Amino acid sequence: METREQGWKTKWLISSIVFSISGAGLAIFLSAIIIKHFQNPKVSDVYIFTNDFDAAFAIFSALLLILIAFSSLKRGSYFMAGIAMGIGFLYLMNYLWFEQWMTFSIQNGYEIAKNENRLFGIQFVIGVVAFLSGILIFVGKKEKKY
Q1: How far apart are CA 128 and CA 87, in angstroms?
Q2: Which of 37, 65, 92, 113 is 20 to 30 A from 75 (CA-CA)?
Q3: Where does residue 11 fall: left (phi above 0), alpha (psi -120 to 50 degrees), or beta otherwise?
Q4: Lowest mean pLDDT: which of 16-25, 35-44, 53-62, 134-143?
Q5: Which residues contact 2 (CB under 8 A, 6 or more apart)?
Q6: Which helix (H) or strand (E) holds 51?
Q7: DSSP secondary structure, 54-110, as one string
Q8: pTM, entire model
C-alpha cells in the first residue's frame, strides 16, 4: 500500500519536472533571441519594450526552473513550488501588460512593437508552464488523509 501511496505523488512530481525543464528551455531560447538582437540590432527589428534586463531575467528564471526540477526529483518542496508559481505569475503579468499596450495601439492606430509579439508569446508560454509546474508540485506534495 505504501508504494501505491507514493506512486501517484511520483507521477505528479515527474510531470512538474517536465514542465520545469520545458520552461527552462524556453527561457534559454528567449534569452538567446534577446542577446542576439542586442549584439547585432537591425533597424527593422526595433524592440520598444524589451531590453537587456529581460535576457538576464530569462537566464535567472531558467536557472531557477532547473533547480526546481532537480529538487522535485526527490520530493519537491512548497518553497520551490512557490518560486515556480512566482516566475509564472511574473511572466503572465508581463504578457497581460504587453497585451494591453497592443490593444491600445491598435485602437489608436499606432504601430508599436510589431516584432515583439513573438517574444511576449514565448513569455506567455514560460509563464503558463512555470505556473503549472508549481501547481503540480503542490499536488505531488499533498498528503492523503483518510
Answers
A1: 10
A2: 92
A3: alpha
A4: 35-44
A5: none
A6: none
A7: HHHHHHHHHHHHHHHHHHTTTT--HHHHHHHHHHHHHHHHHHHHHHHHHHHHHHTT-
A8: 0.86
